[in-house]
Every structure is written in structure tokens, then in C-alpha cells.
Amino acid sequence: MIYIYYFFAGVLIYLSYRSFAGGIKYRRFVLDELTKGSSFTPFATIFAPCRGAEPGLEENLAALFELDYPQYEIVFVTDDAADPSVAVINKLMSNNRGKSAAKLIIAPKAEAASQKVENLREAVLHADPNSEIFAFVDSDVRPVRHWLRCLVAPLSEDNVGASTGYRWFISKRRNLASEIRSAWNASIASALGPNRDSNFCWGGAMALRRDVFEGIGMRGLWSGTLSDDFAVTRAMKSENLDIAYAPGALTPSFEDCSFGEMIEFTTRQMKITRVYGTTFWVMSMVGSALFTIVMAASIGVLIFNKQNQPAFIISLAALVLVSIFSIGKSILRLQAVKAAIPELAPAISRQYFPHCTLWALTPAIFLFNSISALFSRRLRWRGNVYELKSPNETVIISTNDGR
Fold this sequence. Notes:
The chain is an alpha/beta fold. The chain folds into two domains: 2-26 and 275-398, no CATH class; 37-274, Spore Coat Polysaccharide Biosynthesis Protein SpsA, Chain A. Helix content is 51%, strand content 16%. The strands form three sheets. The chain has a seven-stranded mixed beta sheet, sandwiched between helices. α3 (84-95) links the parallel β2 and β3 (101-106).
């Protein structure tokens, strides 16, 4: 049994080193990309689906009117004229007349897709005829001024079908659950990078050229789906088009959460991943299980098997080396993020301690999420409950309007 432990401890050390080396490449890629300029700024449409009046909504949506981009419009969309977000949207459109054109669209209620997807399917029908870029943003993130310019830049390449940023959580109260969610999410953020074959789209900061969107029939491909971004990712892979990661489009989300909300959020992500990105889900489950079991076994050997000197040395080496590589990866990632969002450097600097410690807990959260996704495809999102039958079939179990 001890030799099995030696083997898997060696595997974990090697994978931790590979992850650290990936962190070096990620930091280098981000810094290189941020030095590139781009004059590619065609007229763009930003689609912003909204539901509810979440904390910070007005500040999040107001940021869309302050983007450093020559010409763009904003299409807000919700599924209910009485939704609390409507009053906020109308106020912002009234206060920002003369800046960017903006309109509010009321989408029909979803019948066989998530409400967000239904909102987007309706919204794209209302884009300005002159718009050449379709950009998508979530209402719970707050784009910085260079967000759209950076997101659009990679689309100047003919082989790039979509460009994407990613979310970066910044908690306000800095409670434990919020910091765990931030560290959990950060590990996914740094999975994006120069390897376009392994990149994926994130719907909160995603853009496509309009000719690509319409040419592949993306609106139709969204039919029956729950996840707008995974559906775009699958479409890009099917069409052999690249997905470019734009580090300058890294998008802050200023949110706090309880422990229950953290578990709900992280488990929802893995349930969606299981259906739309099965390979990612399997890799997450195997990797998190390996980490959790080996680290727990190493601690156990140190405490209960001190008389076995080789085992003691190997377990100590595993704990020390994995810790060094993991902390190093966290530091490299935070350095890259500070460069991508320099406006928020003080807030990101405050994340060094939690990110350099909570890496030890996030694999256990990933393992729990992945196992939960193994036994259930039902999830709650924005008050609605969905059952994921397949990538192209979503069943609406219940909605928060009583349907």
C-alpha cells in the first residue's frame, strides 16, 4: 500500500510542477498581450441580459456607458417589464443620453432553454444593422474602460471565431466563503491562455464578429440550451475556429456570498460543465481527488507513521513541494491579474494572503462539486430550476414567477 502512495505522491508533485510552469507561461502571455495595440474597432453591439436588482447592479451597468471604444450600442434585455432591473436600466439610459446608444428589449418567457439564452436569442434580433461585432456581458460584472477594446482586438484575425475574457471575483466584506469562491474561480481563469485549442468561451465577457455569429447560425444553435457560452464553445470547435483569450477583458465581479451560496455557485458550474464539457469535468474530478487524497495521506503519514523514515521523507517532500508550487502559481496569477486590471491593483493586492492559503481547500470543493454533478443534473439559476437532459435539451422545472 505504501508504494501506491509513493507513486501517486510522485504524480501529484509532477502535476503541481507542471501547473507552476503553466503559471509562468500564463503570466508571460498576459504581459505580452497587454503590450499589443489594436486599431480594429468596428461598430459593436453589447448585449446585457438582466434579471433582478442584485447588489451593485447600477454601478455594473453604468460602466457600460463609460467604455473606451469609438462607437458602440448597448442592448439591455430582460424577460419581464416589471423586473426590478428595468427601473435601473431606464434611469441609466436617461442619464446617459448622448453617450452610447442604448435600448431595452423585453424577451419572451423561456420554454425549452434557460431564460438567459432566451433573452439573448431575442436581443440579437435588435442589433443595429451597421453593427459588425456582437459582444456579451453579464449584469453581475463591472467592465473596466478598456474591456471592449481588448475583447474585440483578437477578432481582427480571420481564423478567430470568438474572443473571451473571464470573471475575477473581488469580495467587499472579505468573508471566508467569498474568498474561497474567488480562489476557486481563479484556478479556472488561468486555464485560459495562448493555447487556443483548449480555450473556452465565458458568456460574461465574450465577442464574435457578426458575420461569424450569423454564418454558423448561432442563434439557432442556442435553441434548447442552458449555457450560452458552452454552446458557443462547441460551435467554434465544430467549425474549426479559434477561441482567443483576451487578458485585458478580464472582468471584475464585486460580490460577497455565504457558504451556501458559494457551494451553490461552484456546484452549478460543474453541473453545467459535466453536460457541456465532459472532458473538463472528468479532469477536474480526477485531479481534485488525487490532490485531496494524496495531501490527506501525506499528513496522515507524518502524524502516524514517523517510524518509517522513507515514508516520512516522501510525505514531507510532497507537502512542501506541492505547497511551494501551488503558492507560486497563485502569486504568478495575481501578478498577471494586477497587470490586466491595473485600476484595481490595491484590491487585488489584498487577495495575496487568501489566494496563497486557500489553494489547499479549493480542490476539496472541486471534488465535492464534481461528485454532486455525477448524481444530479438539476440546478437553480436566477430563481429558476432547470434539468439538463443533454447539451441541446433543457427542461424548465420551475420558475420564480410561479410557472
